[in-house]
């Protein structure tokens, strides 16, 4: 069945695109450019790999746009199951996280502006700060970015509750995926609260929660490979004359 006739496969392809965009700024750039505890080396790496850092900003912007289209595709798929839950999924899973993505791009722009301030064409007004102060400012912007991701993890978890409930109730998706998604949502909420109150333990909690976090991967692969086609609600026909 073609994706045009299978709304589940449309969701799967949007989900796959989001998964492909995410790791650049979330994983690759921090591992490549950020040096833990060394503000000067981190600022120097950002200034020396400016275009890579800019592509990370672009991936956040594109991710926000893709996220909006993804939740709209989810709404189309699930509106016949429970419209209120489908609307909740759009708001919590699309609109609000997309706004955080846009704010994250602004904080990255601040980090890049400060990191480039010592280079030709950089922001001259930042010359009132000495080099160690500018390096520290870069780290402040990056820490703000991380804090916004910790906050976004609450939303990454909460949107999986309506998604899991909808998948469970739908009858055209396996029920175990719905249960897995709800467990996945709980794991993200725990991760966010750990990052907020016990940041030193967040990496350990993340490692232990890996099996739960594969719930999103499970529904994405199911939708890409098999798709899902909700039953068409038949309209009542007029009574035939005797």
Kindly describe this structure.
- This protein is an all-alpha fold.
- It has one domain (3-225).
- 76% of the residues lie in helices and 0% in strands.
- The protein is built from 10 helices and no strands.
- It has helices at 7-33, 39-48, 50-78, 83-115, 131-158, 160-170, 175-197, 202-208, 210-213, 215-225.
- Helix 5 (131-158) runs antiparallel to helix 7.
- The longest helix has 33 residues, at 83-115.
Which properties best describe this structure?
242 residues, mainly alpha, 10 helices, 76% helix, elongated
Itemize the secondary structure elements and their pairings:
Layout: H1 7-33, H2 39-48, H3 50-78, H4 83-115, H5 131-158, H6 160-170, H7 175-197, H8 202-208, H9 210-213, H10 215-225
Give a concise summary:
This protein is mainly alpha-helical and 242 residues long. 76% of the residues lie in helices and 0% in strands.
Q: Report mean pLDDT, rounded to a whole number.
A: 89
Shape: elongated
Secondary-structure element series: HHHHHHHHHH
Largest sheet: none
Structural class: mainly alpha
- The number of helices is 10
Please report the total strand number as a whole number. Answer: 0
Low-pLDDT runs: 234-242
Taking all Cα atoms into account, the compactness measure Rg is 22 Å
As a percent range, the share of helical residues equals over 70%
Q: Bin the strand percentage.
A: under 5%
Distance between the termini: 40 Å
Number of domains: 1
């Amino acid at each position: 069945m073609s994706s045009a006739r299978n709304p589940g496969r449309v969701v799967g392809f949007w989900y796959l695109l989001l998964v492909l965009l995410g790791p650049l700024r979330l994983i690759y750039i921090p591992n490549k450019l950020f040096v833990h505890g060394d503000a000067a080396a981190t600022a120097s790496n950002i200034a020396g790999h400016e275009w890579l850092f800019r592509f990370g900003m672009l991936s956040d912007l594109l991710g926000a746009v893709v996220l909006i289209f993804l939740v709209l595709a989810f709404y189309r798929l699930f509106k016949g199951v429970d419209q209120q839950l489908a609307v909740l999924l759009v708001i919590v899973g699309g609109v609000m996280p997309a706004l955080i993505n846009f704010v994250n791009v602004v904080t990255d722009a601040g980090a890049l502006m400060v990191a480039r301030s010592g280079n030709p064409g950089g922001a001259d007004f930042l010359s009132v700060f000495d080099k160690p102060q500018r390096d520290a400012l870069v780290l402040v912007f990056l820490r703000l970015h991380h804090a916004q991701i910790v906050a976004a993890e609450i939303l990454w978890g909460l949107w999986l509750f309506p998604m899991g409930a909808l998948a469970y109730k739908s009858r055209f998706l396996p029920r175990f995926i719905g249960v897995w998604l709800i467990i996945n949502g709980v794991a993200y909420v725990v991760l966010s609260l750990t990052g907020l109150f016990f940041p030193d333990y967040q990496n350990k909690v993340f490692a232990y929660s890996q099996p739960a976090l594969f719930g999103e991967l499970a529904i994405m692969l199911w939708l890409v490979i098999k798709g899902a086609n909700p039953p068409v609600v038949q309209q009542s026909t007029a009574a035939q004359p005797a």
